[in-house]
Every structure is written in C-alpha cells, then in structure tokens.
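The aim of this short unit is practical: by the end, you should be able to scan a pair of folded records and say something sensible about each. We start with the first protein, listed as its amino acid sequence and then its structure tokens.
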Amino acid sequence: MHKDLIPAAAPLIGDEEVAAVERVLRSGMLAQGPEVAAFEEEFAAQFADGRTTVAVNSGTSGQLLGLLASGVGPGDEVIVPSFTFAAVANSVVLAGATPVFVDIEPTHFTLDPARVRAAVTARTKGIMPVHLYGHPFLVDGIEEVAREHGLDVYEDAAQAHGASWRGRPVGTIGAFGMFSLYPTKNMTAIEGGMVTCADEQTARRVRLLRNQGMETQYANEVVGYNNRMSEVHAAVGRVQLRRVAAWTVQRQRNAAFLDSALRGIDGLTVPAVADGAVHVYHQYTVRIAAGERDRVREALRDEHGVGSGVYYPIPNHRLPSLARYAPADALPETERAAREVLSLPVHPALSAGHLDRIVRGVAAVMSAGG
C-alpha cells in the first residue's frame, strides 16, 4: 500500500462546523427546532427554487416518507434502476410496493426512457430515477413516459446538490426530490436528508410521517415514524450550505482537468455531459474496458497512491435482499457498467499535485496493460 494515499472522498469539516455544534449543544435546544427550520428554508432557497423542503434524519428516510406521502403502497409498482445504491429499491419495498428494475442507458448510467416505457403496467404508480454521480437523469425522456401514462416522477437527487437539467434544478422536477446529507456527499450534515415537495399537501404529509404522525404534540393524526433531524445536524448543514457552491465549482474544475488529461487514453472513457445538463461531479466515473477495471484499481492504489471507488459492483437485482424482484429479462447495460465503472478522486480537497499524480498514475497503469 502506498504510504500517501489520495482518498476517493474527503469530507470537509472545519472550525465553523465545530463552532456551530458547540453553539447548539450549549443552547440546550437539541431536538428539531429553529436550526432545522432555518436549514429547511435556506436549502430550499439555494437548491429547490423555494419549494417547500422538509428535513429528515437520512436520505433513505426522505425517500420512504416521500413515497408514502405520494400515496405509494401495497399493490403499486415503482420503476427504478438496478445500477444504484440499494436504498432506492429498499424504500419502495418498505413502502409496501414493488420495485421494477429497468436497465440504464450507457452514456450517463441513468434510467433508459425507452426501457422505462416498455416496463409500464397497469400497476405502475411512478418512476424513481437517480441523478447518478452528480449528472441529471434524462429528464425529457422520463417526463414524456410519465405524461403518456399518467405517472408520478420521484427524484433521487442524493448525489446531485446543485445539478440541473435545461435550467431546472434537480429536486424541482418530480412530485418530490430527495437529497442525502451523508458525509461523502457534496455537502453533509454528518447525517440527514432533505425532501423537496411539489405541493403543500405532500410536504405536510412528510412532516407528519417524520414526527410520529403529529404536527401538534400528542395530537397524532396518522401512524408515523421518528425520522426527525436534530438541531446539531442542521447546524452543521447550514454551515456546509454556505460553502458548497465554491466546492462545486472546484469539483467541476477538477473534472475539466481530468477530462483534458485522460481523454484519448486507450481503454478508458471519461464521463459525458448531456446537452443542457449541469454535472456537479459527486463522482468522476470512467469506464475501464475489457475486464481491466479491478487490475487498474489495485495498481493505482498500490503503485501510485490513488484511491478510487466502484459504485456499484453488484446490481440491486442480484443482491440477496432484492433478488426476488429481479426481472425476467437481462439488464445488459447495468451488468456491463457494474464490471467497468471506476470513480477517480474529484473532490475539492485535491491539490494540483494530487491531480497530476492521478493523471500520471492512470496513464501509466493503462499503458502497462494486463
């Protein structure tokens, strides 16, 4: 192992976040309160065109509550990608519905609208695409299918804070959008999630469900959960919210440098950006062809000190927990992506020296061959 490893991800926590935590701890107000309310308003203004936004304790909670608030339940089907984190399909199952796995398009690794259209049945309630790696899903095609069949769109924007499609911010496209605030995301609240809601009815339902089914103490209207965000998490998130725009610019600059230096290397494909899309590079994900991915990953780590990630090596429909929902037909692009993708460091903590080492390492390892 190289003694000076460049990490694949690097959460940025500074003195401001520490001070915010101390301030809240000394205040004595620790449960959901004014910090959470302020965070919701500030997040909505920055990322969601002012859509009503509800803070919860994790992105997965946000997905689940968004689905329940949208009326998803037993007997319903929700079309989802298999090439993503399992929380997407998990949330559908936890809502009592059935996830229907559909293949991705090969360029941006997001749901293929044509495959989505073919998967619609009389039981389909909605489509839950993922803005994967920081790139928006193909909104035009997905919305066309949704309109044709009267379906809802539910956005997984966990990795896409600040991304947009033809000027429309992600999280403002569907019936709800979910953003994750996990430590490795483009901004963090240590843990947490945000649900951006298309209407006040959905927002009120999410608020009820996150807080034991009540808005007024002891006046429980529905059976709910304890999915509240704490004041400490909100305070950290508010500090990060002030910094994330600059971090996003740095991610995009780092990605542009990597594009320029790595494009044209045999056996490697750099990320593509669709016309009209703003990519925020949660990950800088390349393809490594012909079964070389794992060799390249190991050599980068051991010989050049370059960390990387594989997101996602096992498609959801092949996980033991979700295999019972596997489609009858193969998902060839999903399977190919699982064999070929490699995410290189792109985070804003990278120095010029780090970027040079990444480029030199990738070039050397790819030229060495198997």
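Turning to the second protein, read its sequence before its tokens, just as you did above.
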Amino acid sequence: MISMNLFSFPILRKPIVALIGATVLFGTATPLLKILVDGMSPLILIALLSVGSGVGILCWRMVSEPHYTRERLPVSRRQMSLLAGTIVIGGFVAPVIQCFALIVTPAATAALLLNFEIVSTVLLAFWVFHEPADKKMGLALVLIFAGSILLGWNGEGIIGISLGALGIILSGFFWGVDNNCMAHITAYPPGHIALCKVIFGGSIATVLVLVLGEHLPGVNLILLALLTGFFSFGLGLILFIVALQGMGAARAGAIYAAAPFIGCIASLFVFSDPLGSQFWFAVPLFVAGALIVIREQWILDNGSGMVGAPAFNPDRK
C-alpha cells in the first residue's frame, strides 16, 4: 500500500476523511455539469474539465508526492492492466456517456440515477474482486436498482426507459468498473493514476473537438469548467483514489452513496426542472437502499475495529 508519508496534510492520511471530501466534491459537480453541458458540447466540456483537473492534480503531486518514485512497488502485468482499464473507461468512456446523457436529463434526476454507480461498484467488488460482503447489501442494491428503473421509466425508448436515463445508468456501470480498477492499483500513487486519466481523456476529446470544428463557449463558462475540473475532477478524484486504495471499492462505495443525494439537493436549488410523481416515488427507494448500505458499513467498521483501514487484499486474483 501507499506509504503514509505520501500526504503532506495529516488529516488526509485517513481514507474516511478523503472519502467524505471526495463525496462532497463529486456530489456538487452534477448541477455544475448540467449548467456546462447546456452551454457547450460534451467534447469541449471534457477537454476543459481535463485541463482544470490536470492543473489540480499537478498541484497535488508537487505538494504531496515528490518522493513517491523512490517508494513505488514493482509494476506487474495485472497492475498495468488495471491502470489501462481506469484510464480508458474512467478517463473517457464514462464521462462522455454521462455528458451526452445530461443534455436530455434533468439534473436532479441524473443525480439520483448515478446511484447505479453504487450498485455496479459493489457488485463488481463482490463478484469479480471477492471483497467481503453482507447479505443485507443485496436488499440495498435491489432498492437502488428499482429506484433507477422507476426514475428512468417512460414507456418509450429502449425497454421503456428514456434514452437519457439509460445513458446515465450505463455511465454508472462504467464508473463502477473504473472504481474497482482504481481500488486495486497499488503500484502507482493517486496523483499518477489521476493524471494519466485526464491526459488520455482530455487528449482524445481535444482531437475530436478540432476534427469536428466545435466552437468555444463564453469566457464565464470556460472558467466555470476549469474550476469544476480543478476541484471536483482533480482534487476530488485524488481523494477518491486515496479512499479506494485504503478501504476497498465496496466499503468506499457505502459512504459514497451520499454523493448522488448531495447532487440532487443542490440541483433542486439551482434548477427549476419539473419533477413528476416518479421522482418522488423513487426517492424513498434510493434513501432506503443508501441507508442500509451505510448502516451495514458502520456495523462492519465497528465490528472489525478497522475504520478507514483496508478490509481486503488488493492483490487478490
């Protein structure tokens, strides 16, 4: 695992603190992304977010990771595969799908649908990476999945789910794959992983912007995109990787369940999108599912006496 000397700020040595910070930063990003995607093309948005997040990550690395190269663990083929997976999926595939889906999806609805990321993160952690599980987690995942279906159902589109909702759900699945890849990377520091992701995603988006001849938005939107990238997808991403590497994807996903609700509440204050009865029927399902996940995580932490400590073997095959 990463040396505790990695962090210049002692409070960030605790994965639980890093996760809370990441949860707040990611949660508040949803309404900001909706504002941005309504004012520019998704490809330009991803390119600008990558620039902003890249600056934030570089600032982190200069302050917190100047000596990591001397402590780095040997890089195996599995570690390189995990890094490649998170770079491609989390650096480009998932954000592109999410940005395009946000164009036709109300911000509050999209924020709640992102709970599907929790479902995919936890299920993949249990089934693929064999992290410890509790049977009650299954009920929580069913409730969140049911809420996702109810929220996206309109009787039209593919299998009755709106195209925008389907896009958000699909991006949630890919974010879950991304989370599990990041959680099991031990050979690279958080800043290195995050920087590789934003360089790859930003480069692909920039090339497509130039090829397609996309027009830049106004200065205000550009600045907002850069700041959102700096805080939510730069510093927020690093904090999330710190938590994933210290707690595992399943355990970190429990507390991260609060992020979509933070985004939903923020969206309700920022936008005046009409919310139908489906939204209010789905909210209790999401809340119940998230509370079960958080409660089970709390019991696991207190029962093991390992709050914020690793509960899995990151190199398990």
